[in-house]
Write a structure and sequence with these properties.
alpha+beta, Jelly Rolls, four-stranded antiparallel beta sheet, flat
Length: 813
Amino acid sequence: MNKRFLISVGFLCFAASGWHMGASVAAEEVSGVAAPKEVLGKFFSLYCNDCHGGGADEGGLDLDSLGTDLSDAATLAAWERIFDRVRVGEMPPEDSDSVPSNHRAAFAKILGGPLYKAHTFAKGTVFRRLNRGEYENTMNDLFGTRLDLASFLPEDGRSHEFDNVGEALSVSEVHLQQYLNAADQVLSAVIEQAVEKPEKTTKSYSYADTREGKQRIGKLWKKLGDGSVVFFNSGRAPGEMIRGSGVKVSGLYKVRLTGYAHQSDEPVTFSIGASSYQKGTGKPIFGYRSVPPGKPTTVEVEAWIDEKFMIAINPWGIGDKDNFIRKNGVERYDGPGLAIQKVEVEGPLVDEFPSRGYRLLFDGLNRQLVGEKNRPKWKKPEYVIQSARPRLDATRALQRVATAAFRRPATPANVARYVDLFESQMQQGETFEQAYLTAVSAIFCSPDFLYLLEPEGWLDDHAIASRLSYFLTRTTPDEELLAAADAGRLAKDPATLLAQTRRLIDDPRNRQFVVDFTDAWLNLRDINFTSPDQKLFPEYDLFLQNSMLEETREFFHELIRENLPVTNVVKSDFAMLNNRLALHYGIDGVRTPEIHRVSLPANSVRGGILGQGSVLKVSANGTNTSPVVRGVWVMERIVGQAPPPPPPGVPGVEPDIRGATTLRELLDKHRSMDSCRGCHSMIDPPGFALESFNPVGGWRDRFRSLGDGESVDEYVNGRKVRYKLGPPVDASGQLPSGTQFKGFVEFRELLASQDDLLARMLASKLMTFATGRELGFSDREVIEEIVTQSKERGHGVRDLIELVVTNAAFRRK
């Protein structure tokens, strides 16, 4: 396949389709739409110019130099900020002349019209392509593969939190090259998997029979009379591999472990994962399980395992305190251990053969095996497609593939260019199959596949089906949804649209929506961005990190499943916990590693997202916390108000590493600056409230230190901690309204009392994620309509999702 030729074809397909990548509003489309600066001049002279006119630019705003062309995104954003701050009374400030209410109302009316018109022009002009996660999900679902395709593609741009907003998603030649590479990998995998159905086997392994067993039994491991091998140490990465357990064929497997807790009255928890000797292959963990004391018990996980990966088991929560075993021998050690009798691996589990991808490609084509009898075992089989009417056969097959790829019925006109490409490749000497697969690759590099085909104005049924599916399942529409679109029942029948929405919310694939939405909204995707200092936070481990992510995702999923009020986002009487999180949070009575709903005592700090470890980690840097960083996080993600950037030339506030000055004292001085006071009065209070949580989400009354401080007599995994306790935490603050709070719980109560604000925030985030565009001035009425309807229903989270989908804004570009 000529890759350079296909890249050229890809660009020609974009041009022939009339698509423009990253299109933006043209200036002539909004000619005449400008901020009415002259009309507002009297208002500015009375109330604003002392600080923001005549060269004065307090807070980074100089009204004299501010443009009026609202087709410019930065100018539009600046005028929107002015509109908001005047309308709600933030500006002019309290120490200035008061503004009569009728003057504020007139200001809002005069400026609101042009802002609404300008944003209405701009919001429907950008085409949205699939981001790399959506691309991977779509290709794997269409072809029945499980390939990591996202890593082939350049990282997607983000608009605020979200990486599925069309304006931030461009396409370059590098993208097209990688799309071709990814398509090649998918097609190769489909064809290779169709050669022979893999045989399912069940194999049993014992650690006693491994080379490590022979080296370590009697030294670090203990062998019992029933043949079990006991591990006493946790924290080894990636756990102890079972040599020889590597699978030969990538696929879905069941892994069963039979064992029990040794010398323990409590269950012992462990991870089941895999590892390989090949560098850079990763060390996946398939799940965490526990076994009770005494009686052998079998537990199971089901997971996709790549070829040559071996099973690895790693106990958690047990440790050789002060290296007793190494000093005195394993036989004298009386601490808890994990006794493993055997590990079984069953698979690969194949539910369809040949795969759906093979059927999509080759149904109706006469594809025959060549030379089967004389083929050596080491040689790959060869196939040939026999056809007396190549163009007709290729047209039928390509139309079927294009219909699946384009998410709507493909017409002969849609596939004509791909048929022409097929014929041109045949004329250059390619076989039918080679030429056909070249045309298929071109389909999956075309704008009709890579972009969501959304016409201006009201969306048609298939555009609605795609938008709904990529919103709630993050992949291409399934057969039932496409059938509803084919029948024309989505655009004109609200009952059908609502029924399909509810079906997809209950679909197991909705799990991917929960993951992608929370990753973006709460910034969970940056959980690995920092590595906590192991001297300061030795309790932080991979089990805790995985549990943190699952806690937040399952918590949000529970809000959807049970349609719980949106106030649960910040204050809830339950949490989704397992034994690892319960230990970290100091909650008794949770003994299993599976995440499940746990009732919390009154005023527990763990009820709601703000008390969850994942959120507290991504809003810290691994060593210390910043009230500014966490305050901005709360304002943007929970309150739904993005603070403006700091004025040019104003340095950020960094903690004094000598410990001579607290960050609160530095911020007090920072707020004394006129250019900083307004924003920091909003940002700092929520940041102060979260100071009661350390960078890994643990509760603290005092800061930890590696320098001066009080020594701590605690052990983690058998080792004494090295940190000390420093100054006390002050989590008090005062809101811009003047309301004061003494700590996190009081702040959370104040935030939870604002149910309309929380509903407005979540509705805005959901609408952005659902439509793939950033909301703006003309969307404010839409969000208020949704909030009003939601309030009548009790502000349930599931109701909010349904109201977003059934709102007219969801059905328009």
